[in-house]
Amino acid sequence: MTKIDETLELKVAELVRQTHEAKIPVMVIFEGVAAAGKSRLSNELLLALDAKYTHFYATKTPSEKDLRMPFLFPYWKNLPKHGDLTLYFRSWYANLIDYKHHNLKPEIFKDHHVLLSEIKGFEKMLLDDGYRIIKFNVVVDEKKRQEHIQQTKENPLTRWKAQEFEKAIPADIYLDEMDVLMKETKDIAPWHTINYTERGQAVNDMYETIIKELEQALKDKKKKEDKKEVDGKFTDHFETDLFEDTEDEMSKDDYKELLPELQQRMRELQYALYERKIPMILVYEGMDAAGKGGNIKRVRESLDPTGYEVNAISAPTETELSYHYLWRFATQIPRTGHIEIFDRSWYGRVLVERVEGFASTEEWQRAYEEINNFEKSLTLEGAIVIKFFLVLDKEEQLTRFEERQNTPEKQWKITDEDWRNREKWDIYLEASEDMIKKTSKENAPWVIVPANNKKAARIKALRTIIERCEERLWGVKRY
């Protein structure tokens, strides 16, 4: 009988303190058939670590409520912040097997293995951001497993757990599925197999693996910091014609006639989306003073307030900065049938953070792919994603700035930062063009909205939303 090596346990605890101080987020996954020993290994590890920055999340078969959110939503919600460690008792892998075995969301996922691409993108994105993902596949001798199940059944205090084992996916199906998933994902973050037939050896194997992984994580962090570069990579004398069309005509009379009609249609479509359980995400970006707030107000003016929410995005808080930059958006994604409106969005990473040097060169350059994958996962789940970029010319912006400054009830809208941003007009244009060219995809295209005429911009946005909804709901195209 192998004894648990206390020096290994102490070494793990010390390394987790070091990763905490180094702000390295750690994710430890335990997968394996029911009664393989996952809970015992999990408990050994949890007891060895400081509870202040250690968390536990157990994946269960999704409930009806869970299925109203995207596949990866529980894991976004339970990401460790920088410096913390989260232990996952079953994970997105078991979740995928549940989806497939129980044929969950069949109207959306004709082939549930499409979720594998989401898993790969999710892990790669986190690893690129400095997360450490340690994946354990726990196996056990079948005779030993059955003994464990029998002991659990015979103990009145653990009988409930034996009932859960009976509801679990059959071992042969789980093992076949996991074999495929491990082969497909081993090159992203490797799998480590632990045999729990002999407890002491299993615990020591777990500790030794975690020690190697965390020591490497600390080395990787130092290398990354030594190589860190902050450069927006802007072009001297940049020119573009992408934003030249800033004017659409719209008379006051036409506006007054069209607006209530379109708003009424928006309300009807909101109910249709709710009935069909289709989520919609509206993203507003654009130049300062382009009228994003006013545009959003006209979109939501006639909507049922119980079915939508507006997220006005400002600079990230200290808490938000301690997570992956997409975390604060991924945790605000609407459930099925609801609408979420973002007044500025995740595109801050490739706009203001690139321009102002808040993101490293490597961070904003890889963000295009991360954002494309993020939006693809939303549309795979059935969401309608519409992205507006409102443009106005430099002269019109100056007029609006001066009006705000000279009108007492509007002065709150203008800040010193707005004036500073205006001085960086050309580099904001370049960042905006790069963003649109690299992230306008068929599933989530950009709509450039001329915004010198606020009324015309509002009508264009409303018509675009209505067209996309009608096309999705009934295959109709009006405008």
Automatic annotation (TrEMBL):
UniProt cross-references to Pfam families, sorted A to Z: PPK2 (PF03976)
Coiled coil: 204-272
Molecular function terms from GO: transferase activity
Ranges where the Polyphosphate kinase-2-related domain occurs: 7-221, 250-470
InterPro entries for this protein: P-loop_NTPase, PPK2-related
Organism classification: Bacteria, Bacillati, Bacillota, Bacilli, Bacillales
Protein source organism: Macrococcus brunensis
UniProt KW keywords: Coiled coil, Transferase
Domain of life of the source: Bacteria
Name the UniProt record assigns to this protein: Phosphate--AMP phosphotransferase
